[in-house]
Amino acid sequence: MIALSSFKGKDEVINLAGNWHFEIDRNDVGVTEKWYHKNLSDNIKLPGSMAEFLKGDEITLKTKWTGSIYDSSFYFRPSLKKYREPGNIHIPFWLTPARHYVGAAWYQKEVNIPKNWKGKRILLRLERAHIETRVWVNDKEVGLQNSLVAPHVYDLSPYLTIGKQRISIRIDNRIKEINVGPDSHSITDHTQGNWNGIIGKMALESSLPIYIDDVQIYPDVKNRIARVKITVKNSSQSNFSGKLVISAKSFNVKSSDETKEVVSKIAVSKSDNKTIELELPFGKGMLTWDEFNPALYHLNVKLASKEINNSKSVQFGMREFKIEGNRFLINGVPVFLRGTVHNCEFPLTGYPATTVEAWETILRKIKSYGLNHVRFHSWCPPEAAFIAADKVGLYLQPEGPSWPNHGPKIGLGQPVDQFLYDETTRMAKEYGNYASFTMLSAGNEPAGNQVKYLNEFVDFWKAKDNRRVYTGMSVGGSWPVVPNAEYQSRGGVRGLKWEKMPETESDFSSGIAPFKVPFVAHEIGQYCVFPNFEEIKKYTGVYRAKNFEMFRQDLEDHHMRDQSKDFLNASGKLQVLCYKNEIEKMLRTPGYAGFQALGLQDFPGQGTALVGVLDAFFQEKGYVTAQEYARFCNSTVPLAKIPKFVYNNGETFKAEIVLFHSGKTALQNAVISWTVKNEKGDVLSSGKFDPKTFENGNGLFVGNFDFALGQIKEASKLILEVKVNGTDYVNDWNFWVYPEKNSEIASEVYYTTVFDDKAKDVLNKGGKVFLNAAGKVVKGKEVEMHFLPVFWNTSWFKMRPPHVTGMLIQEKSPAFADFPTSYHSDLQWWDIQNRAQVMNLEDFPADFRPLIQPIDTWFMNRRLALVFEAQVGNGKLIVSSANLGPDVQNKPSSQQLFYSIVKYMNSNQFNPKNKLNFEVIKDVFTSPSREVFNTYTKDSPDELKPNSNQNKVK
């Protein structure tokens, strides 16, 4: 019989962090050779990973990665041969870890069990072990656990005795019977990497054999109560009789609230457990949790009797996240989800952070960009992320740790089927009380018998736990619909239709009309930006940006390294323009429920997807600030419906002003005002609308205004700004006005569409030639330019167009004196740039820089031109592969740019720096590019395979 007594003291927890004995089990012989009996030969520190302490193998071309490689051209391209040499290996698909190892490894530590732990219950808690653990105490095996989402917890009570004890842990990070998919962000080299180790809290925890095993809290905001389910276990050989006492107290906001205690008797038979449910009433001062006021409580649970007195504290928030029709509600208030996708990017460690401070930094950065939601793509973060999100006020969608595709499939009886139920059950138990855990998906983009499996998955969770809302898996637009999903996290209704002239009048209403539940856009954006090579020096930890080093060297080999920062900023400005327009399109769509952008930050894998305005460290790149981004992405955003962005001064600019509002309360008596300014900041026109109250909603009508453009005499960029008076909510749009009729020029320029003998003769005689080479380009015709930039990246999508990610414009050149432009693409460039041919300048002098330079995919780094100038013979030449000329109609920007260039050519300022011979120019129109991309690859991403997403069951 064990005497039960109150237990408190320094030996309650033995911290296991620190030095451990270690040995790699390459040949998988440790179990049969009983390594738990021997002293391991090496040492390592835990928490940590093998790679962190340089344990494992050097990276070679034969490294067996965890992750799909669809573009194998790296292994074959002659131009990349030097990056395949031993000692100079540069992997382009993802970041390169310091060491790589997939297999079994052993960790061993001796611990001293104190005398006062005799008869106690002793748990070994291993937070975020990766992946499979087996544990021995001395020579006895305790068990095996597999979880990518929750701590591995072992009851060592039957195995430990007082005094020195040896604990051995075998960790195996191979994909074995349970295959979640090699590209799942829980394991893949594309993101965190498939590391081996333990990275969170590691401890032996002792308690009395009668203990509070589990506490789950179910808020009922309307009735001001919390239902509290408490499970008490009795592992002793005595019956237990005592009482449970619960109470809650707020702790993180200025307002304070505290409940009265609720007391209940409880009796638990020996070697048994009991779950009881108590109601905890709140008073009128009850505080609710949401993004605006994330008020939290600590629930204190005491288990007491004459012999024992122990307690447990649980963080929670009084909130209800529900669905009504096609919208989400937080505590009864409609909420629009403005989200980003977190893919487990941790480039310093190669594994996720497990401290609240680290997660708070990340999540506050996300929130500063006007976002209120985070989806965790095919992984679940550690507990610290939920604690931090509760404090910051963000709505989270963690996922089952699986992308069951590219190998495994769901609904066919494979082990992953049960594993996803087991893992999500562990997630609900470990993190279910956190207010931020509002949504759950089973994973990402599955294959197999998915509809039946996911219908049953959603039904299971709807019946089991009402604290959050459930979808099947997060999917692209061609995946089958899961009818039972409470909301859709889905592609197909997203993107910008900029094959037509840009406008801000259209919306996504027709696309979401078939869906009667909330529609959340899956992975919007994916607009690429050129690499920021200044980022390379940040990689001081486990990873090196060998991909960036390779891209930088290739850029230097193509004589453009000095332009890298300009390429970054110019492509970055276009990227922000695209995100702004796509987000605004959703904000003005009535009934749209939210988006999950991919992403706010870069994705380090899948060929290197530089789709973020932040880098993989969640730090700014320099071309947009959080304040600038939050103008078009926020809880309240003024919007303008504008039919076009280029006008002549005989027209009238017209706009319908609408408002997006997703606030804690209605916007009361709001006055919306507008101004039109020129680039100097002079106000040309302004107005305001009558005060009005706006409830939460998308595309709420405010009013119309127009502005006659007759006063604009010169080609001008104007800015429309709309704001909610008395608040920080303001938004703006550029538009351009050109003269309806430009003044006549007495031109000395010979205009031609063929670079022929006559052009050569004019040049030899000292004349000026404008060559409109649209449609005539041979050297560079394989490079496809749209107005939109590269999607995701050209490697993962096997050079699917577009190949260009914006343009760098020499805006200070007098060639643009009558064509207002910055150094980057903006909407006035659309009719010039979209689908225009580009010229490959591979044979031009190394220092040659065109007036307008399309920025190639960084996998090729070809020197490209849209418009260039040069001295040829005794004359001067401008060549345009965009269709610029006197006969161009219905393209106002093209016409205005042609006018500006010809006016420049007729001035004494026309003095090109570079001298070229006739043949090198003519070669652009006669000879193909010497450097041409070859995929060398037969396979391709699912997204490129016809009907692949349905993945027919075989």
Automatic annotation (TrEMBL):
Pfam families: Glyco_hydro_2, Glyco_hydro_2_N. It catalyses: Hydrolysis of terminal non-reducing beta-D-galactose residues in beta-D-galactosides. Keywords: Glycosidase, Hydrolase. Residues 935-954 are annotated as: Disordered. Residues 210-319 form the Glycoside hydrolase family 2 immunoglobulin-like beta-sandwich domain. Its EC number is 3.2.1.23. InterPro entries: Bact_Beta-galactosidase, Galactose-bd-like_sf, GH, Glyco_hydro_2_N, Ig-like_fold, Ig-like_GH2. Residues 15-201 form the Glycosyl hydrolases family 2 sugar binding domain. Belongs to the glycosyl hydrolase 2 family. This is beta-galactosidase. The lineage of its organism: Bacteria, Pseudomonadati, Bacteroidota, Flavobacteriia, Flavobacteriales.
